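Researcher: First entry.
Model:
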Amino acid sequence: MGGILLVSTGADNPEAMPESPSYLAPLVLEAALRGAGMRADVFLYFEEPWPTARQRLLAQVREKQYEIIGLSFMSYNRLEAFDLLRDFQQIVPASRIITGGVHASFLYEQMLRRFPNITAVAIGEGEQALVEFCRHPDRLESVPGIAWRRDGGIVVNPHTKCPPSLDTLPAPNYELMRDCRRTILIQTSRGCVGKCGFCAWRSMETTLRWKSPERIVEEWRQIREVFGPDRRIAVIDPLYNISLKHVKSMCRALIEAGLTTNPWDAQIRARPMDGEALELMKQAGCKRILIGVEAGNEQIRRAIGKGISNEDLQRVFALAREVKMPTVAFFMVGLPGETDATVGETIEFVRSIRPYYNPMCGMAEVYPGTRLYEIMKQRGLMSDDYWLYRHPKNCGDFEVHANMPLFTAEHSAIELIRWSIAAQQALAVPQSLGMNDLVMDEEEYDRHDPCRAAQSVGKLEALTQARPSGTWKGRARRVVRRIRAHLELAPSRLPSDSPLLISIQLRAHRPADVYLFIRSRDGGFLRSVLWNGFGHLLSERVTPLAAGLEGGIEHTRTVVLQPAPPLAPGSYTAILVVCGKSQSVSVRSHWFDWRRKHFRVK
């Protein structure tokens, strides 16, 4: 028994985030151990479903019998991490396990009490804690920044002072990700001074620190060498533009080094920002900026500690239009103080700032360590035990988030869903691009720019007339009342070479496309499989079973499926997805509804 393993936990739910910082964490931790003269294996998975990757991981652990395992995860994939901890208890009961990440940092006591095979929990940034833990696994009192058990209680060791510059930390080895075909993540700064009541990130990294331009160029060049000059890069700094000096010096360094071909994007605050910084970002290869609007009502924004005014937001979107920098606006419904009137204000405000891409609307979710979580606990709506279990997803006619709870201290989940769908409909622009489509030059910017198209037809409002008539509140109420979808299978048990009879009943509030997927269940874990050669689940190439069904009318369809090749014996799930007409089924927010039925092949 020996060796160290660092694990990036995956997720097996529709809300899994493909660009989560958890994919970068094992690389950063491996670099820290390498800089301290220690070697560690890193387990990463990219193009395979998590259940398959999990089985591969367990086989590797069973074979190598690691002495130390570092497990990083976040709140949305905590249940998958808990399953791994139980597996490790059976496979390698003598291994010393240290967990970390945002979720474990806040609920370290729960983790230590519920999972006896956890030796320690790293709180906050974990590089120093992991290095000292691996050096002295039997002297936990000397390891900074961890929580651990002693004499039946839990002890929290103090942190050591963070290094003043991120350059003192070894650079990640991106060669370990060579098989990855996703966007590559890079972090150029750490720390957050924001006070947003819905975000837990500030409590993880409070001290602002930056990488030097030379260090950023070094990492950027390695990414280019490993993945090529066209691979997209995402800068995942909590507050990328909190220092415009950092932004400008980084962009100038990339320009001087000739590293401007990889398209990249960054999430920024509305303040501080100026035209020079945006122009330099554009010259350095930045293809879009993502900006948190959160709400159009300033009182709601102040109440959650956002600290950004409507004037700040209007200014940054106007600056972006001047330099032709595509923008994405993020906002949410259901924050404290939300009403029909404030949702209407948000809709009108987002229209007024004219983002380039379709705005992204979410429902306020609850994360450990946030002000929203404390409100929910004070109201008796949640406890720390919530995070230990899976919860039903059905909510009326909807299936809502599987793993992350919604903020329902003031409004029901149905009300949040009503607001969310209404806002998405009211702000949808037919000419907009998908979130995965990057605009590469000014000619393409002009061709797709919805605001430019609006100017050519005389008014911006012309682009929003494709939605149903009536007030947005009335449309929203009809959404909740009139989405109905039912799925029936016959027989529920069938021979492998027999057809499957599927009956669908559907009534949607507006024109819809219907998709049908078949997923196999191997060993109790779902693996995405699509019958009849349509492609992978949620691929852009998926063909609808029924396209353009008229809204407001009851539709009944009976379909006989003769899968080719025949389905092997085993358990399967049929999944019905109702999506807006001509909208991409790969975008989860485009789904009206989804239904599932199970069947077995003998």
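Researcher: Second entry.
Model:
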Amino acid sequence: MIRATPLLALWFLTGCNLFNDPAPPEGTCSRDQDCPSPQRCYVDGCGTLPADLLAEVITSAASGVTSVDMPLGAPVANMRLVLPDQQLLQLSVRRGSGPYPASVQLLATGQSTLLPGVYRTAQTAGAAANGLFQVGLSTGLYTLVVSPVDPTVPPAMQSGIVMDAGVLPLILDLQPAAEVQTVRGTVLAGPGQPEPVPPTVQLLGADGRPLSSRTVAEPDGGFQLSFGIGALDGGAVLQVSPGPGALGAVAALPVSDLAQFGTPFIVGDGAAPVEVSGQVLGPDGSPVAGASIFIQGTVVGGGSGNVGPTFSGDAGTFVLSTLPQAQPGALQLWIVPPPGAIAGLVRTPVDVPGGAPVAGSWTCPARPVLSGGVLLPDAGPLTGAVVRLDPVLPVDAVTPLPPSGVSGQTGEVGTFALRLDPGVYQLEVQTGPFFPAVRRLVRVTSSGTQLPVVTLAVGRTLTARILRDAGTVVPQALLRVYRRETLEDGTPRALLLGEDVSDQSGVVRVLLPQQ
């Protein structure tokens, strides 16, 4: 639903002062006709903004925080952005022939269909005698999971829910009691050996759909699950996850027949843990303090293990424990030095057989340098500007995506130099109140990257008023303006250009880079 509609007739009559903006500076403009084609008149003068801008308007209501996405089209001064009076998923939860009145948990996960790379989550919990729930849900494409608190009632999931601006009614049916079966089983670390900390157990479909509720096993490993009759026909797995603080692995045990519940499920993580210790060194051989270290991979028994993080001390040393490897090469050691350090990210196989501690020394490569400069329109340096880089894509198929970004400032001559791991990043330079922020995608290779010097251009302030369908203004709404970009692998992504919050009269002003 497109709701960005300029008030053209009224605008032509009143020029740039429709929303009581101050008169434009002398020598600029008061109407479009004062500007050379194809420029338009904005509150701060003549200019041309891109015609492919996308908007996200984020508001709060009793039902939750919601967003409405819309294309802006050709931006003009004093745009009207009209939001629906309500932005809701009206959900009716039923079981059998009537509503389901007991407590449920609702989780909706999805992403915007207009702003690629913008993901959204909404969740709530409660009970309703009539089974009706109102959930504030942003525009986008969602998967909804409804999980009854009663473990004898299996959860229900629905995918492909398209939420447009407004109210979306939806009926979701839980499986009636006549279609549900309950089984008992046992999960053990090894033959006759319960887990020291009871694990959580859940039956999942081959595609990851929840077929039963999550339950905590008893101290002896016993558990009870309820799921639909025929749920095993398409293949299923019993997911067993370690209990709180337990050293273990997430196991996915195939289940295709009810008879399998008559025999204990063996996770196979009964082996003694192995201590892994060592020292982290930088490219110059000096110790790296404060590095985050963890181990991931397949452990004995076939489960997915993930231990850590632990942190290296002043001498670069660390100690952590893991279950032994399933086979050589099955475990990976990750070392993530602190932001700004000369030492860079390491991901390397680590050999952890059972029976004896493992010790070693690991040397990090030098982090490459991303350097550049920012100049004012008069060619003077922009000093003290905040520069931030956030990872969005791995630099290649074998290099891992850096887990975090880095920030710094431009120096006295407007230049910056930041150390960060190879990857594709979103660069953002906060330029102050008089120029639009610089945002772009940059690629940092293992040999470093020198960016061309950026000379700031005067932007233009896009003014808009945010209204509801009924005509009421919307104060304290966050307007975020994007432009669609394409990453190196062909993936589309929405690149934020500017944002600001509407005032008490619903008016918002966003400084944007010109065309």
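Model: Note on the second entry: Helices lie at 8-14.
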